[in-house]
Amino acid sequence: MNSKTVSTVLLVGVLIVAGAIWSQNQAVSARSPKIRRTILLNFKPEASAAQIQEILKEVRKNISSLKGVHSVFTGPQINERASFKYGISMDFDDEAALKAYRVDEEHRQTHNKYNHLIEGAQITDIRDE
Predict the structure, then answer these.
(1) Does the CA dihedral 44-89-63-123 come out positive or negative?
(2) Per CATH, which fold does 35-127 belong to?
(3) ∠117-122-123 over CA atoms, to 5°?
(4) From CA 32, how far away is CA 129, in angstroms rounded?
(5) Can you tell me whether residue 102 is helix, strand or coil?
(6) In this predicted model, which residue has the larger pLDDT, 18 or 38?
(7) By the 8 A CB rule, do 47 and 86 touch?
(8) What are the boundaries of each domain within the chain?
(9) Which residues of 50-89 are buried (b: 16+ CB within 10 A; e: fewer)?
(10) Separation of alpha carbons 16 and 93, rounded Å
(11) Among candidates 122, 126, 110, which has minimal Cα distance to 42?
């Protein structure tokens, strides 16, 4: 191979690598900042149906009022075979809204008020891509 061919091959290789890096950076910067949190939970047997409804109602009211929070769902699981019987789901505009929710004093008070009635929980945070 002559030096012109080697130079051309190297140039093509550099362009391919540069294109791949540019493409990867574009995909990262285009990623949505939105986050969906889902909380699955079970209540202890001593929690009455009325208490559970009140908890879900209060949680919905509290979370829905927070800035950057949308699409709040609370309620019973409809899949009878699922291991968790209730759920709470909400969408956050971005990570800052999720962080604000975590430290919100009213939210923390509501959690502490009812935590003794919760038997088990699972939390997932999913970034929209």
Answers:
(1) positive
(2) Alpha-Beta Plaits (3.30.70)
(3) 115
(4) 6
(5) helix
(6) 38
(7) no
(8) 1-30, 35-127
(9) eebeebbeebbebbeebebbeebebeeeeeeeeebbbbbb
(10) 36
(11) 122
Give CA angle at 100 (124, 33), nearest 5°: 60
Sheet with 118-127, strands from edge to edge, namely: 69-76, 86-92, 35-43, 118-127
pTM of the predicted model over 0.70: yes
Per residue in 77-117, pLDDT tens? 999 899 999 999 999 999 999 999 999 898 889 888 999 99
Q: Report, in this order, helix, strand and coil percent for the chain, each rounded to 5.
A: 50, 25, 25
Q: What mean pLDDT, rounded, does the chain reach?
A: 85
Could you give the CA distance from residue 103 to residue 52 in angstroms, rounded to a whole number?
Answer: 23
Q: Which amino acid is at 88?
A: I
Alpha-carbon gap, residue 52 to 85, rounded angstroms: 11
C-alpha neighbours within 13 Å on the C-beta side of residue 23: 6
Give Cα separations from 125 to 25, 44, 70 (angstroms): 23, 24, 14
Record the tokens describing residue 19, joined without a space. Answer: 């294109």
Give the DSSP letter of residue 93: S
Place of tokens 């919905």: 60
